[in-house]
Amino acid sequence: MNESAGALLDLSGKVAVVTGAATGIGEGIARTLAEVGVDVIVADIDTVGAHRVAGDVGGTALDLDVRDAAQCASVLGDIGERIDILVNNAGSYHEAGSILDQSVESWSRSIELNLASLFHCSKPVAARMVDQGDGGAIVNIASVDGLLPCLGTGYDSAKAGAIHFSRSLAVDLAPHGIRVNAVSPGVVPVPTLDRMHAGEIEHFWPTEPSTSGLMGPLMKQRSANVPIGRKGTPRDIANAVLFLVSDLSSYVTGQNIAVDGGWTLV
Questions:
Q1: Could you give the CA distance from residue 153 to residue 108 in angstroms, rounded to a whole number?
Q2: Is 93 labeled as catalytic in the residue annotation?
Q3: Measured between alpha carbons, how far is 3 from 25 in angstroms, rounded to an integer?
Q4: Which of 93, 155, 165, 263 is the catalytic position?
Q5: Residue partners of 95: CB distance under 8 A and separation at least 6
Q6: What DSSP assignment string belongs to 3-36?
Q7: Is 37 in a helix, a strand, or coil?
Q8: Torsion of CA 12, 15, 20, 24, to 10 degrees
Q9: In this structure, are residues 110 and 155 in contact, taking their beta carbons and an 8 Å threshold?
Q10: pLDDT per position in the chain (266 positions), as tens?
Q11: What's the CA gap between 33 and 5, in Å, rounded?
């Protein structure tokens, strides 16, 4: 490899916070960043999983509930000497399904975890990046469900909001050299969903749901006919994140990359 090209992917000495990194896509992102020299802070409410991943990658485990704005401000405002990268990955499918089945409380939980949490984490980290004076990169993990309706009005709306939040924050922080982008994963099997389908944990959605166009035949057809011919992996998503936090994308901000194998095309 050309030395100058390789240097663009060398993030040695950088410090990254990855939320929801104890499993699934977040774990894949944490491992990929560690491979290129990043000191990764593995943030999750799953402390056992966070310590497992942090131990594997030589990083730091952080007990963090991204729904708690005060905790995010306190913890992310003080941890370590600096933060160069923030990946807002934490989220949940739990509040999906028809509006006919969803309570006001369920809607609020979905918005809080999948959208408001981006603000909770980005605000203290952005303030630190500004004080550091040498820029930074923030990546928000959205979803193809924020582009095409799929799982439920709460989840879909939150993920659409995540995409536009990324655009707005990109303009907001551009004068400080802080780039903000989003990644929208497509169909990516993760351990939590696998365990749900296997009956090992409680089903996320009503077992006898109301009739709805969401999560119906069209959605299942899309997921079963991904143009590229396979489902995605956490590594696929992590590679896109790596691009967006490296100097390979130094002129890229306010963008959303759909890493979906063409899911949004059918």
A1: 11
A2: no
A3: 30
A4: 155
A5: 102, 106, 107, 109, 110, 113, 152, 154, 155
A6: HHHHHTT--TT-EEEEETTTSHHHHHHHHHHHHT
A7: coil
A8: 0
A9: yes
A10: 566 767 888 999 999 999 999 999 999 999 999 999 999 999 999 999 999 999 999 999 999 999 999 999 999 999 999 999 999 999 998 778 889 988 999 999 999 999 999 999 999 999 999 999 999 999 999 999 999 998 889 999 999 999 999 999 999 999 999 999 999 999 998 776 666 666 665 656 667 778 888 877 777 788 888 999 999 999 999 999 999 999 999 999 999 999 999 999 98
A11: 17
Q: What is the DSSP string of 38-70?
A: -EEEEEES-HHHHHHHHHHHT-EEEE--TT-HH
Pairing of strands 178-185, 256-259: parallel
- Fill in the amino acid letter for 20: G
